[in-house]
Specification:
- This protein folds into two domains: about 350 residues, DD-peptidase/beta-lactamase superfamily (Beta-lactamase, 3-Layer(aba) Sandwich); about 90 residues, Pab87 octamerisation domain (Lipocalin, Beta Barrel).
- It is an alpha+beta fold and about 450 residues long.
- Strands 3-2-1-15-14-13-12-11-10 form a nine-stranded antiparallel sheet, with helices on both faces. An eight-stranded antiparallel β-barrel has the order 16-17-18-19-20-21-22-23. It has a two-stranded antiparallel sheet with strand order 4-7.
- It is globular.
- Helix 2 packs parallel to helix 6 and helix 2 crosses helix 7.
Length: about 450
């Protein structure tokens, strides 16, 4: 494990990434030996009151909630009240044929065959004022009525294909309530939060609003951060609000094999099932990434399996990662959407493992894209162009070639970066040379050389 003094590199990365993407605040931390061993708190939890973020500041964690839902299901299986391969329709009044043969396993792994339907989006976007097509959806209790026309929308048979389905986790919340005889939130609080000492973790609006150290939610658009509201109602799919200090307790328990203070919270077999990949993740950050029960799995990070989950409700983003059985983990929380919290947690975990986080593929790509940004000129400066970074892509604009041409990375080598774009109906190669005295760009008929940094956003 890296020495604590080496964690300043992680601190610098958190601050730099947060500043570049204009996030109001981020709290991130590294976990080892059963608890939080290092944290960095960047920015303000509220831009008006100027109150700083702390490790106890409350953030919405979105889909991280799914891991709590899956853990609740696992506990009910351990108690003999449920089986992972039970049909959901045997417990819930689902009349739709699309769910006729769907098992608990299929909902946990997003392999029901039903594509995303927009229920969570309707709740979240309406709450924060971004819903262009509002639906009469009030909260999680409306899930049954919302699914009334789902027949005919299934794309594949259960188990054949992954479609990230928030609606499936709302149904799992109903299932937990049905089988346990307690409301979903009460079950999670009594069986997970309380045993872990997570005293600053809530679902209820009245509990959250009674707290003092709460991050104000923001819609971040470029240089502007607009105050928003908590999108209450995300329930078992994304409704948990917690702090870094509390989340660290949860991650430490998972990383330690399911035990807390010598007491087992979930059986080894059920936890291992949660951490087993059953479906390929459709947009992997690293090769072979898959999905288990409410958890994403990276099969190989410097020879180690890494498990975790990210979350976003637009005005809050989050992520946690851990190495099963090693007691090591990382987490990051923000009150806005900008930089990927999963990349931030991955950088932290790699640092904790004593490896070089700057060599992570996404960090390396980000570094190269930044290096290629700037103003370019062809021979004698007659034709000029400008390159700007937009997430994982570059945007090219210039004389005689047009504006906002998207350049997609294809191969990033030591001193040459190959991209492609679509020109008309043709696939067109674009090449940068860098790492020398002059950074060059070849696009179509022109050869450019970099002359300066990019100008202000237009």
């Amino acid at each position: 494990m890296a020495e604590l003094r080496g964690f300043t590199r992680f601190d610098d990365f958190v601050v730099r990434s947060s500043q570049e993407t204009r996030l109001p605040s981020v709290t991130a931390g590294l976990i080892s030996g059963g608890g939080l061993v290092h944290s960095v708190e960047y920015g303000l939890r509220d831009l008006v009151s100027k109150e700083p973020a702390t490790v106890d500041t409350l953030y919405g964690v979105g889909s991280i909630t799914k891991s709590f839902t899956a853990l609740s299901i696992a506990k009910l299986v351990d108690e003999g009240k449920l089986d992972f391969h039970d049909r959901v329709a045997d417990y819930l009044p689902l009349r739709q044929k699309a769910f006729e043969d769907v098992e608990v396993h299929h909902l946990l792994t997003h392999t029901s065959g039903v594509p995303g339907l927009g229920f969570a989006e309707a709740i979240i976007f309406r709450a924060i004022g971004l819903c262009a097509h509002p639906l009469p959806v009030l909260d999680a209790d409306d899930i049954g009525d919302f699914l009334d026309e789902v027949d005919g929308w299934a794309v594949s048979k259960p188990g054949e294909r992954m479609f990230y389905l928030n609606e499936g986790y709302y149904l799992l919340g109903r299932l937990i309530s049905k089988v346990s005889g307690r409301p979903y939130e009460s079950y999670v609080e009594a069986e997970i939060l309380r045993p872990l000492g997570m005293t600053r973790s809530y679902f209820a609006r009245e509990q959250i609003e009674a707290e003092g150290d709460v991050a104000t939610p923001y819609i971040v658009r470029g240089d502007r951060s607009t105050t928003s509201v908590f999108p209450y109602g995300s329930d078992a799919a994304g409704g948990l609000v917690t702090s870094l200090s509390d989340l660290a307790r949860y991650v430490a328990m998972l990383a330690g094999g399911g035990e807390v203070a010598g007491k087992r919270l979930v059986s080894k077999s059920s936890l291992e099932r949660m951490q087993t990949s059953y479906a390929a993740w459709p947009s992997p950050m690293l090769p072979g990434e898959g999905y288990g029960y409410g958890l994403q799995i990276i099969p190989d990070l410097y020879g180690r399996r890494v498990v975790g989950h990210g979350g976003s409700v637009e005005v809050f983003t989050s992520s946690f990662l851990y190495v099963p059985g090693a007691g090591l983990g990382a987490a990051a929380l923000a009150n806005g959407a900008g930089y990927s919290m999963t990349q931030m947690a991955l950088y932290g975990l790699t640092t904790l493992l004593g490896e070089d986080p700057e060599e992570l593929p996404m960090v390396r790509q980000e570094r190269i894209l930044k290096q290629l940004e700037g103003k370019y000129a062809a021979y004698k400066g007659i034709v000029r162009a400008e390159v700007k970074r937009n997430g994982s892509f570059l945007i090219l604009s210039g004389d005689d070639i047009g504006d906002n041409i998207v350049l997609v990375p294809e191969r990033l080598e030591e001193d040459v970066a190959a991209f492609f774009t679509i020109a008309g109906t043709a696939r067109m190669a674009v090449e940068f040379s860098y790492g020398r005295e002059v950074t060059g760009l070849i696009y179509g008929r022109y050869s450019y050389r970099k002359t300066g940094p990019p100008g202000p956003a237009r």
